[in-house]
Amino acid sequence: MDKWIELVKAKMSELKITQEILAERVGMSQGGIGHWLNKRRQPGIDDMNRVLQALGLDFLEVAVVIREPDASKGDGQDLAKKYNPYFRYPVSGWRETAEVREGEPPVYGEERFELSDYHARGAAFWLEVTGDAMTAPSGISIAEGMLILVDPAVDAVPGKLVIAQWPGSAEATFRKLIEEGGQRYLVPLNPTYPKALYTDECRIIGVVVQATAKF
Predict the structure, then answer these.
(1) pTM of the full predicted structure?
(2) Which residues have C-beta within 8 Å of that of residue 183, sequence separation ≥ 6?
């Protein structure tokens, strides 16, 4: 709930939209919107998604994840009451990701979605890691088969894990962006793979903001 409120308020500020305007778009009273944003009342999942759509955040969707209660707390709450709002993002392929052009929304072949508590700044999407170029012997390691969440609106600064595309390449690539001696490089976490000099011809598609494994 807090993440949803934070996202809605930030988008309202960005678009210079008042509670009155938002209420008109959603089809309810300004007081109702105010109750939600001040946590005096809690909106339902459908209402939360209506507000996101009214703000132009159609690529986001609030979903519900049921969590098993922590028996150690002994609170005796019902399982169905243990839930948190999550955002739902589409899963893309490496080739179709590289085909997305600037200013155009991504198009995905199959409607597959995965959940995350991360609220994206842009049209975020998941990718499934292939190969072992980002599998490291120590420290941060992203193994093959893991899912990575990519946010195109996050600034690609040195130290970030990024999805990039080289000129002439039909697929995107996953690397760490670093800076050494005034030059930037795209570096694999697996030291057996070579690093590559980053140039203006290389397109950064997005920054990896989360990684998760499926069991």
Answers:
(1) 0.62
(2) 197, 198
